[in-house]
Amino acid sequence: MSTVVVTASGGLGRSRERLRIGVLVGVNLLGLLAFVWPFVLPLAPGIDENHKSDGPLILVTLLICLGAVLFVELGRGGLGPKAVALLGVLGATMVALRLPGFVAGFSAMFIVVLLAGNAFGPGFGFLLGAVGTFASGLFIGGLGPWLPFQMVAVGWVGAGAGFLPKGSWGVRIGSLAAYGFVSGYLFGAVMNLWSWPFVAGGSALGWSAGADTLTNVRHYLAYYAATSFAWDTFRAVGNLVLVLVLGRPVLGALDRAARRMRLDVGGDMTGPVAKGAVDVDATEHVHESRGLPGREAG
User: Fold this and answer.
1) What is the pLDDT, as a whole number, of residue 275?
2) How confident is the model at residue 85 (pLDDT cuts 50, 70, 90)?
């Protein structure tokens, strides 16, 4: 009887994991399409020439898929209660850091996404970026058609940080700082895509329905260089500086929190440990698994 229960539970867990992965992949593919449609859809037959009728449909579909991601991850079978609590705390931190506003294109909220994504993995990083951006939009009044695109773009920043190497502290901080610098430009370049076909249409730098993909790419690169590159430099440099200054102590705290809460949201979250150091939390876990008293019981 117990074997049947365990087998059924394992099958249900695998089904939920496949659903989680499928929803995450789906929303990322849709997000990618929502950003790159000006380069792809002109090649498809029967598409409206100005694409303005497609914008609301993409927006609504993107919101539905983001809602599905939150439901699957935060609902039963998704993240556990400890991870949900941590997500709430970090999301609130993003809101607090965004309240003072931006210095050109820079906001300190990106440091939370970068460090948490690196500590807890790409799935957690994407979800934190989406949730934190949505919450901050509610608090600062930043609600508009751009919000779901911001949620996806900030989520991508956090997800990318989760794929970086976690070797020595030098490698980890160096790669994260470099990624923070590059992602500062990439975030701006991606975000401009949501409005570029509408705000620059008809100009020499705008989207042209009759042009081929390569021509529209050249138009967009020129548009980005002329309107946003200098603005995004503030974000790139700000990310770099904050990671170099705060990266090691904050990542160390996040790694310890992950071990203490025994989270498993991003694979290996132990981070670099000094040679000869004793992991007290890991020791307590061994004691408890053997039925021995932990530190508090002693």
Assistant:
1) 38
2) confident
